[in-house]
Amino acid sequence: MASVTDILTQRFDADAFKVSQYRDNPRLLIEASRVYEFMKVLKTECGFDMLAELTAVDYLKYPNAKDRYGIIYGLTNTTSGERLWVKAMVNDPEPTVASVYPFWKGADWLEREVFDMFGIDFLGHPDLRRILMPPEFTTFPLRKDYPLRGRGERHNFQSITRAEG
Amino acid sequence: MPLTLAKPFPTVEDSPNQEYLYTLNFGPQHPATHTTLRLVLTLDGETIVKCVPDIGYLHSGFEKLGEDLDYNQYVTVVDRMNYISPIYNEIAWFNTVEKLMGIELTPRCKYIRTIIGELARVSDHLLCVGAAALDLGGITAFLYAFNQREKIYNIFETMAGQRFHPSYLRVGGLMVDVTDSWIDQIRSFLPEFQKTHADVCRLLNRNRIFIDRTKGVGVLTKEEAINRSATGPVARAAGVVRDVRKDEPYLAYEDFDFKVVCGKGGDCLARYMVRMEEMRESIRIIQQAVENIPAGAVNVDVGDRLTIPDKTATYRSIEGLIQHFELFMWNRRWKPPVEELYGAVEAPNGELGFYVVSDGEGKPYRARTRPPSFIHFALFPLLIEGHQISDVPAVLGSLNIIAAELDR
After folding, report:
1. Per the CB 3.0–4.6 Å rule, which of A112, B54, B133, B185 could disulfide with B38?
2. Which superfamily does CATH assign the domain made up of A2-156 to?
3. How far apart are the CA of A52 and the nearest CA of chain B, in angstroms?
4. Which whole-number Å values give the CA distances from B273 to A98, B134, B217, B237, in the listed order?
């Protein structure tokens, strides 16, 4: 982690990122608008060659949260076994962040899932479609304002009769 | 809001100059997919020129459910993700939760978890290898493998009372302690299993048909494996030397002598070979663990109000009773730190991790799974394009896609 911080301090201003640690998770908080630059440095100079995880959290009901969505990137250096957790916060009405697909092809489906579940747009993703929910679905189920209990979504779907089919 | 149908998958109309191509819909119900997943294949004769996977048929909102169930209750849902080795999902979930709460397990609990985790790995690999052989026409190996899986289910039944989804782990310990007869059951299982393992090896390792169908099929290079986030046997068969058990030891893995099995080819045969050898290593771990299992308690100390006390303590002592209610009343339960973290384990399929966000309540604010099947299935178009349609079952079988984990 020390060497990663050194490289980042050389490349960026000290206030552009914030380093913290919880248990065995070294964490890096960056601005969403600078994800592309940071990821480029982390991939090419710090040796994080694998994107182990990409997910998002909706902080709508979280205590003392200022921003709404946190996008979380789990990077792994397969040579040294080092890990890094990068977080970028985005907000409504148009949560958008640059895609990391140019660096890690593994981001393809992971970003599609985040788009599907949270409605976060990844700029530069080659094929941003819904992946788990059906294409005609209109909302984003893992957002905190999506109800946990209810009648279900069946009434929202078109029914195709035998004559039409 | 009126709904409009989205644009369907690319078809022949999109490329009018290639009228000889035709589209084949593979699944969602097909014997070779084992569960529900769909592939839209564009074919040039028998050769696959384009493959678009379509998933989500089994999506049941497990992550959303995780936000409504407490840390112990979620174990029943976690069980149903990779239902081929449910115990390992439980290990992964509680590994993260215990890391969040800062619980250090007792040595006996660590050993028992390691033993059942490795049994689950053997059972998972047996299914994968057996089903891969079945899809390629080798029914005998499948039956041998399933016979041994049945024995492992019996071991789980003795331990937890449930064969398929044991729900055996709890925060800070286990549901109940194991008995000596359970240890004996494992002791008698091991030599039997080794015999079957040798039989399956003899049936498949030099089998002309099996090798012809798997060698050079679905090749994944080391660079692609890393770049596309592959882990577990799929990555190790491509030459990525990475195993969470060795790199970031958890449970009791530090105490045991075992090897990380890697291959070079990156094809279906290499993945099969890696799985076969990994089973042997798992058996070595179980042998060492069973002979050195420490005595003592399985749950962490009752005083810290983290584990469910056993029934005797609940009924016979006031501390136990208080403790029980502290964990089961909605306004009490755990008070984990307001933090978030990720914990990963080496599940049979690859790195299985949970990203847990806690807001200090008794249930997680967000319980995200990093599902290895999801990430490996994303590799499928890369592996299959350019191959024949009959290679689809071979590649699917070697990736061991479990649709319940894929869609969650």
Report:
1. B54
2. NADH:ubiquinone oxidoreductase Nqo5 subunit (3.30.460.80)
3. 6
4. 40, 16, 14, 8
